[in-house]
C-alpha cells in the first residue's frame, strides 16, 4: 500500500536535520566541557523544565536536548506512518532500526549525565550518534525511493 502523503519524506529529512543539529550542539557541549550544564538531572535541567537562569554551559546542554527531542518527535512520527501505511518491508526495517537506535541513544544520554559523564558511556553516546544519524538518513533515502500517495 502506498504511504499516506509525500509529506512523510519532508518529515523524514527534517528529522535527520534536527538530529544533525543535536550532534553539532553535542560536539560543542563536549568541547566546552558543558556536559553537566543541566547538572545530573534528566529529563529536567537543573531541576527545571525550562532553565530560566542559564549560563552558557546550561544553554549548550539544554539546546542539545531540545534538538534531540524535536528530532525524536519527527523521526518517531515518520517511523509510525511508515510502519502503519507502508507495505514495503525495507521501509519497515529502516523505521524499526532507526527508532530502536534513537530511543537507546536518548536513554544513553540520560545515563551519561546520571553517571557524571563517565568516559566509556560518553564515548558510547558519540558512537551511537553516528549509527543513529546513519539509520535515520537511510530511512529518509528509502522513503524517497518508495511510492507515496498525495
Ligand atoms: C535527551 C537526550 C540526550 C542527552 C541527555 C544527551 C546528553 C549529552 C551530554 C551530557 C553530552 C556531553 C558528553 C560529555 O561532555 O562527555 C552529549 C554529547 C553528545 N551527544 Fe548527546 N544527549 C542526548 C541525545 C543525543 C542524540 C539523540 C544524539 C544524536 C543522535 C546525541 C549526540 C551527541 C554527540 C555527537 C555528542 C558529542 C560527543 C563528543 O563530541 O564527544 N545526543 N550528549
UniProtKB/TrEMBL annotation:
Name the residues that span the membrane.
12-33, 62-81, 93-117, 123-141
Gene Ontology CC terms: membrane
Bilayer topology annotation: Multi-pass membrane protein
For this UniProt record, the keywords arranged alphabetically read as follows: Cell membrane, Disulfide bond, Heme biosynthesis, Iron, Membrane, Metal-binding, Oxidoreductase, Transmembrane, Transmembrane helix
Q: Which pathway does this polypeptide act in?
A: Porphyrin-containing compound metabolism
Q: Where does this polypeptide localize?
A: Membrane
Gene Ontology terms, MF aspect: metal ion binding; oxidoreductase activity
InterPro entries registered for this protein in UniProt: COX15/CtaA_fam, COX15/CtaA_HemeA_synthase
Q: Which GO terms describe its biological process?
A: heme A biosynthetic process
Identification of the protein by name: Cytochrome AA3 controlling protein
Organism the protein comes from: Aeropyrum camini SY1 = JCM 12091
